[in-house]
Amino acid sequence: MKKAELRKIYKQKRQNLSSDEIRQLQESIYNQIYDLDITNINTIHIFLTLEKFQEIDTKPIIDYFRNQNKKIVVSKSNFTNNTLTHFYLEKDTQIELNKYGIPEPKNAKPVSETALDLVFVPLLISDIQNYRIGYGKGFYDRFLTNCRKDVKKIGLNFFKPISKIEDLNAFDIALDQVFYPKESN
Ligand SMILES: Nc1nc2c(c(=O)[nH]1)N(C=O)[C@@H](CNc1ccc(C(=O)N[C@@H](CCC(=O)O)C(=O)O)cc1)CN2
Ligand SMILES: Nc1ncnc2c1ncn2[C@@H]1O[C@H](COP(=O)(O)OP(=O)(O)OP(=O)(O)O)[C@@H](O)[C@H]1O
Q1: CA of 112 to the centre of ligand 1 (A)
Q2: Nearest partner of 157 among 62, 81, 55, judged by Cα
Q3: CATH of the domain spanning 3-179, picked from 1.10.8.60, 3.40.50.10420, 3.40.50.300, 2.60.120.1440
Q4: Which residue among 44, 73, 100, 170 is least crowded, i.e. fewest CB within 10 A of its CB?
């Protein structure tokens, strides 16, 4: 199937999940994150939960890495050129919702993409080669090209990968891994 159709299907599938189902699916994803070897990881980029699209709650992930003394980085989205800029998320960093409902840091310290060791990537669906589809603006393809070659890219999703996204293009970047709930459909 092609991106546009897959986007529609998986957006709907996610909206159809109940909060109980989400709570259960999240647990399995969190456990895979807690099993990661993070010895050589210092700076971690993560997305802040976009609630209107029922994304995974990333707060427990942030708390976990904070407790491991890792640096956390989050982004602000520029919807005129579909690019992200990045900032440290510290204990006292203020967060506000932008007009799309995405939580963003206020007055925080900027970070270059090259400082990132690990990036958690939001997605609607991935394929078994770890290519992903998001909301369709290319934010993450643009972002990930600016990261170091050795950055670890891990997708998080409630649904298991499909066999193939048919209309991949030269901008699409494969992830290193995708975490999805065991025994999900
Ligand atoms: N938490 C989180 N942050 C993220 C992403 C993400 O997937 N999750 N993105 C991943 O790339 C980027 C944001 N991508 C987004 C793309 C569209 C819409 C959105 O609200 N779309 C409207 C139509 C908007 C319009 O074009 O006017 C909609 O679908 O109703 C929101 C976020 C950057 N930050
Ligand atoms: N590095 C890039 N430079 C220029 N254009 C790009 C780049 N990456 C992606 N694009 C363009 O952005 C548009 C959206 O890409 P795509 O459909 O892959 O989005 P997506 O990965 O689903 O969205 P997102 O990354 O925002 O979650 C496409 O027209 C694509 O060609």
Answers
A1: 22
A2: 55
A3: 3.40.50.10420
A4: 170
